[in-house]
């Protein structure tokens, strides 16, 4: 009895009301399956999207209320495919399938070796003095070995072909099955008629090489899946939740809810997002922030699922559990990117749809043509068999998805989360990079600069007022508060905040609002914020520090032939020092969102393809208008929603990695498409002309799929220098002030 699965627990709801589920689909053995599965699932009422990734065998389906997850699974079964949730069971199923392929390969190899021993005797005897009786005996012994061996070893092809035909469709295992069956059938007929030639050896060797190719292809695709990885699995499967009596109880991570307290032991992965309730330790947050150095934590600090705890035990108050942690958001970004299809993928899919009917038609026409040309039935059938086997769209279908999966995994390891399937193709064509300043070229955390001899009491008072302000500059001042937030604070829109403290009116905000004069001993380019208490005034500067590797990354981008610009909403005095420190000649300051879009439109009108990198709320329209866009993980949520990718950590290195990775991926996609097309252009005419045996056809077909997959794995190589330059972004370094960078 089959195990019942409640698929509803694997369904996620999106903001637009769509239900979405990812399934691992078994039985996908060729590129023609892509169109069959996607079209079949889309035929269900309410299904708005179905995307199958051939490399990962992951089907992502989105639907409205008209359908249900059970109906999706039932539809796949009706099409001849088995499906289960894309989780740990997917890997288990893949492992079982690999072992089965290996057993079939072993049977085919053992049978082929024994049949070849008999065949060598027949071949040599046919040119010497073998008697017909001896030759027929060897042929029948070969048949006794070949037929049961083929029945077992050919199961991967025969079962797939049977499922396809039963559901009224064709896949590429149908012509393989026809080819092997014809070869065996012709051999039995030749043996029964006491003819000098039989092809049991060729049929079994054909199966052996087809299975070898399929097993190697399976393992190569497993490696491409491993480069992207199942990120959510890094948080672990179980957690120790503390009960009311303080005793830890082992529970699945899906059972964790906000408000729960969990115990994180030394060396253990954090299972949920939360705040440390008690304990001290250091954690490796490289998965979340991209920083490789451990971060010291104490009570009150936030920590994210997937982080690796160091030497101390922690009690963690859960703020996000189940499927709502940051690491799950990361996984959804990766899944969404892999589910989308770029222009290259759509082209390959359209071509693959036509392959199955064209293969059968080409083989039939070839056989009829050779018969009409006077060739015998045996020769004509063998040519048809070769055409059936050599013509396969698998290489074409793997050409782009394999690169996409591998490159996505490489960029994730570099701290970049792709949010759009065609992002790599668009990014590879970019010739201009436009940066926002605040929070993008500079770090999101501002630093406070005080004039010489500043009154500490006024600074502490300013910090208390800043606790009630929503202005970004207040974030730098709030940590200086010397007490709790002041009650009764009034915010004056666009000016600042004010309150009555000790009978005196206290104001915090702009220089004009506080009636303060511009000081002369604050850093040039710093944003200014003033405090007034009675007749006393204090003017403070909020200074932005450059990202640690900003100078090197900008230089490396230029070395790759890209023009770098700044479009900022900040005032000119704050933008000029950044542009000078980074040697950026083209910059604009004081821009509103509409001005940024207008600037991008002018660049695009000049034929430029623009990468926009920004983090603020005002950058969201510009990110949407650019050719391709990136946003730091510290950016506003709406900004990340409009970005094609999000990068982690304090460094700009992921931007450079994205450019290099996209160029490598685009080149490998073009190479793979060229390999797949060139293979078919050369191989099919040779098979039709009779220059290719079924055995050689099997080698060629398997080799083409393996070749494009191995070529795709080159996209996983880190630190590749793809341009004629030695400029690279540094791996280390601390944040630098503008003065240090300029020096």
From TrEMBL:
Protein name: Heavy metal translocating P-type ATPase
Predominant subcellular localization, coarse grouping: membrane
Gene3D superfamilies: 3.30.70.100, Calcium-transporting ATPase, cytoplasmic domain N (3.40.1110.10), Calcium-transporting ATPase, cytoplasmic transduction domain A (2.70.150.10), HAD superfamily/HAD-like (3.40.50.1000)
Organism, as annotated: Xanthobacter oligotrophicus
Biased composition annotated in UniProt, kind: Low complexity: 726-735
Family: Belongs to the cation transport ATPase (P-type) (TC 3.A.3) family. Type IB subfamily.
Subcellular location: Cell membrane
NCBIfam families hit by this protein: ATPase-IB1_Cu, ATPase-IB2_Cd, ATPase-IB_hvy, ATPase_P-type
InterPro entries to which the protein is assigned, alphabetical: ATPase_P-typ_cyto_dom_N, ATPase_P-typ_P_site, ATPase_P-typ_TM_dom_sf, ATPase_P-typ_transduc_dom_A_sf, ATPase_P-type_domA, HAD-like_sf, HAD_sf, HMA_dom
């Amino acid at each position: 009895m089959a195990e019942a699965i409640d698929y509803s627990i694997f369904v996620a709801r999106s903001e637009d009301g769509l239900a979405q589920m990812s399934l691992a689909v078994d039985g996908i053995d060729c590129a023609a399956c892509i169109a069959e599965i996607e079209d079949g699932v889309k035929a269900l009422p309410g299904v708005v999207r179905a995307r199958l990734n051939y490399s990962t065998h992951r089907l992502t389906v989105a639907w409205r209320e008209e359908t249900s997850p059970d109906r999706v699974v039932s539809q796949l079964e009706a099409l001849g495919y088995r499906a289960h949730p894309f989780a740990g069971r997917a890997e288990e199923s893949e492992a079982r399938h690999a072992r089965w392929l290996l057993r079939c390969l072993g049977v085919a190899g053992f049978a082929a070796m024994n049949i070849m021993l008999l065949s060598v005797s027949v071949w040599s005897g046919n040119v010497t003095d073998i008697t017909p009786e001896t030759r027929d005996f060897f042929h029948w012994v070969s048949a006794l070995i070949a037929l049961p061996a083929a029945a077992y070893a050919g199961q991967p092809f025969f079962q797939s072909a049977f499922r396809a035909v039963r559901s009224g469709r064709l896949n590429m295992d149908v012509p393989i099955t026809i080819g092997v069956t014809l070869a065996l059938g012709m051999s039995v007929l030749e043996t029964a008629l006491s003819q000098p030639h039989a092809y049991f050896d060729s049929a079994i060797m054909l199966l052996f090489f087809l299975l070898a190719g399929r097993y190697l292809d399976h393992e190569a695709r497993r490696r491409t899946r491993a480069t992207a990885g199942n990120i959510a699995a890094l948080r672990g499967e179980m957690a120790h939740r503390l009960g009311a009596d303080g005793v830890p109880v082992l529970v699945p991570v899906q059972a964790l809810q906000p408000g729960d307290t969990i115990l994180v032991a030394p060396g253990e992965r954090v299972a949920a997002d939360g705040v440390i309730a008690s304990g001290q330790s250091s954690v490796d947050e490289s998965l979340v922030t991209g920083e490789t150095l451990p971060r010291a934590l104490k009570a009150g600090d936030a920590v994210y699922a997937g982080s690796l705890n160091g030497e101390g035990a922690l009690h963690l108050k859960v703020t996000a559990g189940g499927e709502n942690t940051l690491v799950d958001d990361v996984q959804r970004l990766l899944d969404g990117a892999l589910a989308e299809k770029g222009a290259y993928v759509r082209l390959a899919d359209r071509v693959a749809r036509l392959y199955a009917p064209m293969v059968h038609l080409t083989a039939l026409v070839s056989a009829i043509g050779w018969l009409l040309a006077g060739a015998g039935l045996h020769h004509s059938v063998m040519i048809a068999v070769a055409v059936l086997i050599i013509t396969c769209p698998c290489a074409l279908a793997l050409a782009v998805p394999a690169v996409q999966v591998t490159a996505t995994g490489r960029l994730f390891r570099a701290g970049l989360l792709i949010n759009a399937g065609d992002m790599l193709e668009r990014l590879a064509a970019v010739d201009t990079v436009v940066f926002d300043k605040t929070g993008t070229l500079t770090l999101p955390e501002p630093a406070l600069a005080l004039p010489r001899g500043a009154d500490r009491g006024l600074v502490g008072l300013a910090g208390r007022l800043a606790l009630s302000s929503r202005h970004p500059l207040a974030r730098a001042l709030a940590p200086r508060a010397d007490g709790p937030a002041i009650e009764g604070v009034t915010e004056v829109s666009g000016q600042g905040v004010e309150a009555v403290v000790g009978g005196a009116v206290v104001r915090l905000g702009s220089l004009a609002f506080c009636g303060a004069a511009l000081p002369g001993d604050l850093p040039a380019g710093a944003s200014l914020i003033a405090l007034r208490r009675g007749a006393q005034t204090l003017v403070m500067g909020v200074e932005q520090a450059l990202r640690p590797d900003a100078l090197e990354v900008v230089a490396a981008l230029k070395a790759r032939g890209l023009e770098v610009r700044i479009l900022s909403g900040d005032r000119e005095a704050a933008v000029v020092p950044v542009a000078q420190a980074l040697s950026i000649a083209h910059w604009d300051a004081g821009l509103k969102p509409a001005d940024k879009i207008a600037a991008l439109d002018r660049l695009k009108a000049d034929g430029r393809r623009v990468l926009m990198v920004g983090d603020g709320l005002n950058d969201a329209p510009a990110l949407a208008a650019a050719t391709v866009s990136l946003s730091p993980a510290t950016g506003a949520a709406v900004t990340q929603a409009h970005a094609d990718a999000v990068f982690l950590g304090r460094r700009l290195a992921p931007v450079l990695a994205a450019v290099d990775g996209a160029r490598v991926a685009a080149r490998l996609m073009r190479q793979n498409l060229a390999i797949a097309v060139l293979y078919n252009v050369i191989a099919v005419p040779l098979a039709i002309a009779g220059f290719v045996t079924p055995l050689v056809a099997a080698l060629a077909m398997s080799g083409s799929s393996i070749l494009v997959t191995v070529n795709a794995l080159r996209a996983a190589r880190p630190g590749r220098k793809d341009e004629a330059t030695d400029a690279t972004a540094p791996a280390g370094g601390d944040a630098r002030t503008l003065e240090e960078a300029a020096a």
